[in-house]
Amino acid sequence: MSTYPLTWNLDVIYEGGSSSPAFAAELQGIEQDVVKLDQLVAAGEGGQPEQLTAIAELMQSILLRIRESDSFVSCLLAQNMKDAKAAALSDRVKTASAKFDGVLTRFDSILRSMDDSAFEAWLSSGAAAQVAFNLRERRELAKEKLAPEQEALIGDLAVNGYHGWGEMYNTIVSRAKFTDKGTDGTEKTLSAGQMFNRLSDGDRAVRETAFAEWERVWGEQADLCSDTLNRLAGFRLGVYENRGWEEILKEPLHINRMSEATLNAMWDAITEGKPEVVRYLERKAKLLGVEKLEWHDVTAPLGADARTIPYEEACEFIVEQFRSFSPDMADFADMALKEGWIEAEDRPGKRPGGFCTSLPLSGQTRIFMTYSGTMDNVSTLAHELGHGYHQHVMNDMPALSQEYAMNVAETASTLAELIVTDSAMKAAKSDEEKLGLLETKLQNAVAFFLNIHARFIFEKAFYAKRKQGMVTAEELNELMEEAQREAYAGSLGSTHPHFWASKLHFYLTDVPFYNFPYTFGYLFSTGIYARAQQEGPSFAEKYVALLRDTGSMTVEELAKKHLGVNLEEPDFWREAVQLAVSDVKLFLELTEQ
C-alpha cells in the first residue's frame, strides 16, 4: 500500500460528497446566519461600538464557513465535472455569498458614514483592533463605490449573471473531448486535464499531434468561449462605469493591495531582462533541432527531466527538499501528502489544471492536480503545497486577517517550487540530471516573464476593445497571437491562438486580471529566497512572520517591514530578475556543442 494516496479524502470534511446531510445542514446554517447578520446591521446603523463588534464577529464566522463551503464544492466539481448535484450546490453557495456580500455592503456604508474619531476609537480596543487594517480597507473602498442598495443589487444580479457566466467554463471543458492516437494506431478519448499533460510529452511527435488536437477542439468551442468572455467583461465594465472607475486595473490592483507604480516597476525590469530568457529559448530550439521553438516545444523536457517520476518518489523528494529550508514546512507537507489532502490521480472526468483551496474551519487544505510523472508535475505539487503551508501558518488568526491577496499567495507557492528545484539541482549527481532540473527552473522564468506577460497584454487589449462592443472569436485569436509575439520577443515559430479559450484563469470572477500576481509572486519569492540563503536556517521563522502579515498589509508595507526594500523603485525588481535568469549562463555552458 502506498504511503502517499493519489486521491483525496473529502469525507472528513463533509461525509457523503454532494449528497452530504452535514453539508446541507452547514449551508442552511450559513443562510440563517446571513439573515441574522442582516438584522444586526439594521440595528447597528447608529454605529455603537458594541453593535459593530457583534457584527464583525458574526461576519467573520460566516466568512470562514462560506470559504469552507465554497472550497468543498470546488473540490467536488474538479474531481467530477459531471456532478450535477455539486453544480447545484455551487449555485447555492454563490447565492448565499452574494446575500452575505450585500449585507456587508450596508455594514461598509455604516463604517463609511462614521466620524473619523469615533471609527478610530472603536478600532483602538477589543476584537476590532485585531483586524483594524481590514476594517479600514473596507471603509476606504466603500467611499469609492455606489450606494449600498445599488452595490447589493449588483451582487444579487451577479449570481445568475456575472458568476453564472464564469461557471460556463466548467460546462464547456466538461463537454470537450480530445482524441489521443497511440503509437499502435489505437484511439482513445481523453479529458482536457489528461490531454493537457500530453502537451509537455518528451516525444516531439506526441506533442505536435497533441497540440494540433488541443487547438482543434478549443477551436470548436471558440464561439461559446468568446460569448462567455464577452459577457464577463461586459458585466465588469458596466459595474466600473457606474462606479465612475475609468481604469480597468483599479480593481485588480486594489484586490492585490498593490500600487500601479509597483506593477510598472516590475514589468519594466522584466522587459529589461527578457533578452537573457530569449537566449535560453534559442539554445533550447537548437537542442531540439528546430530553427525556432513551436508553442508546444517551450515546455518540452530536456535531460533527466524526460524520465517518468513515480508519485511516491516525487512526494519523498519534495518533503526532503522542504526540510532543508524549514522542518515545519516539511512536516506540514508530509502530513498533507499522507492524510489524503491531495487529488493527483490521472483519470478521465477531472478538470484540467491544478489548485490549492483552503478549508479554514477544518484547519486543512486540499490540492488538485493530474499527476503523470513529469518534473513539471513535481513542481506543480510543490507549488500547491506552498499555498497549503501559507494557509497552515494563518489558521489561528482572525478570519479577516486570513484574507491575503493572490500576489502574496503566489509568493508562498513559488518559493516552495524554488526550494525544491534549486536544492535538487545542487544535489544532482550528473550534468544530465542537473540539466533537467535547470530546465525546470528556467521554465518558471519563461512562464512568469513571457507567458504571464502575454496574458496581461492580451487582457488589457481585450478590455480596451470590449469597451467598443462585442469581440469576435477571430479577433480574440488575433489579440492573443499579437500578445504572445510581443511577450515572447519574437522567439517563437508558432503561437497558441486559442489560448484565451482554453485557460480557466480568464473566466474567474473572484479575481480580475488573474495573471500579473503570478509574476509578482515569482519575483518577490526570488528576493525572499535570496535573503533566506544569506541568513540560513534562522530565516524560516522570519518567513512565517512575513506570511502571517500578508492579510493585513499592502505589499509595499510588507516588503518594507520584512525585507527593507521599496517595491515602487526598480532596484529590487532588477535584482530579482537577474537572480531568476542567472541560471541561463549555466544552461548555456552545460549545453555547449
Outline:
The chain contains 25 helices and five strands. By secondary structure, it is mainly α.
CATH superfamily of one domain: Oligopeptidase f, N-terminal domain
Number of strands: 5
* Low-pLDDT segments, ≥5 res: none
Class by alpha and beta content: mainly alpha
Radius of gyration: 24 Å
What's the CATH topology label of one domain?
Answer: Butyryl-CoA Dehydrogenase, subunit A, domain 3
Sheet with the most strands?
A: 3 strands, mixed
Give the CA-CA distance, first to last residue. 45 Å
The helix/strand series, from N terminus to C terminus, equals HHHHHHHHEEHHHHHHHEEEHHHHHHHHHH
Biggest sheet strand line-up: 3-5-4
Spatial shape: globular
Main CATH class of one domain:
Mainly Alpha
Beta-strand content? under 5%
SS element count, helices = 25
CATH architecture of one domain: Up-down Bundle
